[in-house]
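subagent[fold] <- orchestrator: predict structure for attached chain, return tokens only, no commentary.
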Amino acid sequence: MSNKKTKKSKKTNGTKKSTNSKGKKGATKKNPKKNIIPVLTKETYRGLYFVISVLIIILSVLQMGFVGRFFDSLFKYLFGSFSYILYIIIVATPIYYIMNKKIKTPAIVVTLLVLIDFLFQLILVGNAESTYISFTEIYNGKVLTYGGGLISYYPVKFLIYLLSYYGSLLVVISAIITSIFLYFNINHRTLVLRLKHQIVDAFDKNEYVDEEHDECLEFDEEIIDDYNYVDTKKENSNEQRYNNIKDKDLVVDIREFKEEPGEELVQRVTRKQAKSKEVKSVDVVEESLNEGVSEESYDNYQLPPITLLNSPVKKQTITKGDVVEKSKILQSTFNNFGIEVKIVKAIVGPSITQFQILPTPGTKVSKIVNLSNDIALNLAAKDVRIEAPIPGKSLIGIEIPNTVNELVTMKEVFVNDEDNSPLSVALGKDVSGESIFTRIDKTPHLLIAGSTGSGKSVCVNTIITSILLKNKPDKVKLIMIDPKMVELSIYDGIPHLLTSVVTDPIKAADVLHKVVLEMENRYREFARARVRNMEGYNKIAAKDPDYKELPYIVVIIDELADLMMVSSKEVEESIARIAQKARAAGIHMIIATQRPSVDVITGVIKTNIPSRIAFAVSSSIDSRTILDKSGAETLLGKGDMLYLSADSSKPVRIQGAFLSDEEVEKVVDYVKSQSEAQYDPNMTPSEVTSQGSGSSSADDIDPLYKEVLLFIAKTQKASASLLQRRFKIGYNRAARIIDMLEEDGYIGPVDGSKPRKVFLEKEFAEDYE
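subagent[fold] -> orchestrator:
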């Protein structure tokens, strides 16, 4: 026995020594073992909950075994007939969480479910002697209806005792409606005002209804009422109207910003996109577009969801006190210069505050306009723009920059789009905070100009993203020309493109020429179908299989100045022809440039493109080049724009919607995942046009060019003297051929006394022969 003990002790000692001898190495080996132990994450718990809940509900509904009958009886005992709805909720909840969505205000959700259970109890009161059934009766299957369950039985019974049956029913329904309003953040006043305005518009469409939003902080409005009411029988003079305005507190219109756009707006956009998915898509590519392109059905194509865009994060940028203080300074400025005016209203916009003033009768508008620099000095403002008069009102608007600008996001503007047109695009918000949209088919072409960093490229991205969010690839086709190579390259590969993004200015001129040919082909088709425009042609194509529906084509040129420098004659001619004739053919252009000079935006281009957007520029001369009037030089940059539509004589000031590069990438990735790009070979630029404008063009190629090319490939030498001796030609001709070879990249440049490098292999000549 003693020997055995000593052996054991030796073994233990040996093990101890071995562990000690390992020292730190042994310790370091144990740490990884601890990390091997799996850690249950939230996703794992949600998955387990989903599996268990589905298993229990299947057992309960099918009453499989003792466990299934027990759970089924328990649910019906506690919740009655409401248990069937409860089954759906139990399964839907983990699915909702697995999709990484959180239930906002869960307390309201639980309250709503309990109230619905109460409603079940009340509805079943008249159908059964008792709405509470014992657990034993349910388990034994002696009853067919299960009432409202135990949970709601006693509360409802007490409620009926207090309020009677119908009173209890009214209270429960009212509580359910209130819970829904609280959960979806619906304001009752906004809902009532919308219903009111819809009713008024239905009876009298010509009557102007001043819609007061719930987001506005309303103050004394009698001054506005006194101003708007003018009895033409009693007050026929401007002086009487001016005196009619009472000296009361300034009306300040400030919007209360929200972090999310209205839930009902997001749901409306989602429903609109869902409808467009259900509509069967027809292959709408013209015969000239289909040559060499395999037709692809877009029936399963899904539009990008609005949730890909970032939600706005808002904060109040200005208070009523700040506005009132500025109005006092403004009033004192006019008094100092002997101009009597009354400030009627102040509207706080995203980036500016507009003060609406009414001058004394007989006051020249030019006097007020000339005070813009003095007003900016007294208010310590960067720039002040004066709109005289405000369109539709006998008021003058003075626009003063806010201390802090509000960020207007693409999402909050896009959700307000009620136009079903495929070419309706978001621009931003005006001074009053209303979302502004434009239809490209009504413009019918758009010129965008502004200095670097003013928001021009963001505006172009906003327009393109609006098109991608609303249209399948067979409805709208795009052609993008980007000489800067960095602005539109992100869209390369989307299925809406007819050709890859063109970056070569010479190729761009060729593409524009092919757009002109496409326009003429469409007009020939219209003449054959005896219609005047694309809309009429598509109506016939929808009924007659001999015709194919045509998509809209939008040509987007990001930098016009670079194209005009390389091939101004060809580019200007093609743009002029497209702008003059392409509207009825469904072809539209969006041209952007950061150099608004007369040699870029020529008179021919301006005449045929009436719709224009001007961002911040350096001088009034540039502003007049874009808009034919000054004003853009006073803009603040960062998306602040003036939009002049084709049907308006005065530009509208808009704070452009902001779209980050991350949002653009999300939308583009989603679109690319739906379908691959299929470029049209008829719109692909020819390779010949990409060559330089020197002597290697197709018309000026020397007859000996090919022979010289093979000769230098064989000999691996290239020089003018060598060609003179070999081909017995003069020096000028030999030097010109050498220049052509260098220009085309077959030989290298002169490097001192060293021979030129030849980039052709000997095998080239052998293969050619």
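orchestrator: received. Logging for downstream: The chain has a mean pLDDT of 75. Residues 150-183 form the longest helix (34 residues).
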